[in-house]
Amino acid sequence: MSAKTLKVASGILIIFFGFLYSPSWAVTQIGGSITTNTTLGPNGAQPDNVYWVTSHLIVESGVILTIEPGVALKFDGGTSLQLRNNSTLIAIGNPTQRIAFTSLRDDEFGGDTNGDGNGSMPQPGDWGKVWGSYGILTGIQIGALGVNVRMSDCVVRYSNTGMCVMVSDDPQHPHNDVQLEMTNCEFSYNRGFPVEVPVYSIPAVMNPTNSYHDNLWEAIGLCWGTLTNDLTIPKGKTYVLATLCYVEVLNATLTIEPGVVFKGMDRSVIIMRNYLSPGSAPFSKLIAIGTESEPIVFTSFLDDTYGGDTNGDGSATTPPAMPDITGFEWSGIVADHEAIEIDLEHCIIRYSEGSGVHAQSNINPTISLSNSTVEFCKQFPVVVPMNSVEEAVSESNT
User: Fold this and answer.
1) H/E element, 204
2) Of the N and C termini of the chain, which has fewer Cβ atoms inside 10 Å?
3) Phi, psi (deg, nearest 5) at residue 44
């Protein structure tokens, strides 16, 4: 047995006793709050390559956690890495020394850390924390405000949702604001989404060098987030609006490529807003121009017709023929203010618990809907102002 200790915060001892089961791997047990800048790895305060996380590892506000190439963080059940508001994670590996965030039972990274030989095998959901009243389980939790995450050549696996950005609970700053950079990262064998991020983080997670495979929910999860700069969403993965997710477009243009599939969970919505004076030129825009062969789809998380079996349960669940507001359905596309333009062509909109496209009362957005299908919605297919009736009720729509 080897006694390993590392102080990462004044007066707080977060590393306890580590057993060295293999002569080729040094193991250090860690857990608790990190309140001063800390490096984990061969050049850290306690040089090591393998860290056994025995309780939540919490990077407090204003603190930088740096993880060096080749390090493996292996998590006990129910534990997680949590990044508080205004903290920073720098995990820059390389192709031959990847950084792993994985299960204690995963012998591929860091060897047989729990010392049981082949007595246990890693499983999806081995680690991760329950967050909030909706029971979100996640391995790497990113605070809603001011967090900076830089990851390269990292592996995140055998968690619940691999990485998730939290929703702000600060009434003065209701929208999350994180900086996320990801290249050459792999998310695999997780029991939920590989990642769940705000819409503005899509370019980071959809960097073509990143890979996602063998996750139960093989899609990019979207949490509450506000888009304030123009963005184009590429095809290549299904996107799922998580429970109570608002994809808010505020004084920006959101463009969606042909072939993209959006699926919505309970009471999620794409909402168009701006804070300009009435009569202004359109300043918030949703441009979703599909093609006949590659329509853009907005539908329920339970709908396997488009994007496949995203929730990973085979045919066990299907969307109801008439969505129930207490069920698992999304809430459609909503225009919430003046000076908004919504342009939908070759789109398929299904299973909304409200209307497929809805303009709030007493506003006057511009809504164009052509060569599109709206079906299986609980309320009207579309609710639009008089100036958009002709285009929204075009004979090209069904």
Assistant:
1) helix 202-205
2) N
3) -85, -175
Distance CA 373, CA 350 (A): 8
pLDDT in tens, 320-352: 765 554 445 799 999 987 778 999 999 999 999
* Coil, helix or strand at residue 213: strand
The domain tally of the chain equals 2
- Do both 294 and 386 map to the same domain? yes
Q: Give residue for tokens 């009569």.
A: 279
Q: Tokens 């929204």 — which residue?
A: 392
User: Which domain-ending residue is among 199, 221, 243?
Assistant: 221
In terms of domains, do 333 and 276 share one?
Answer: yes
Residue 151 CA, chain-centre distance (Å), reads 15
Domain limits for position 168: 1-221
Least Cα distance to 333 among 376, 293, 291, 381 occurs for 381
Q: Answer yes or no: are the C-beta atoms of 368 and 397 closer than 8 Å.
A: no
Q: Using an 8 Å Cβ cutoff, are 260 and 235 in contact? A: yes
Rounded to two decimals, what is the model's pTM? 0.89
Q: Phi/psi class of residue 235: alpha, beta or left (left: φ > 0; alpha: ψ in -120 to 50)?
A: beta
Backbone angles phi, psi at 53, to 5 degrees: -85, 110
Instruction: Please name the amino acid found at residue 316.
Output: A
Q: In whole angstroms, what is the distance from residue 54 CA to residue 125 CA?
A: 16
Neighbours of 115 (CB within 10 A): 12
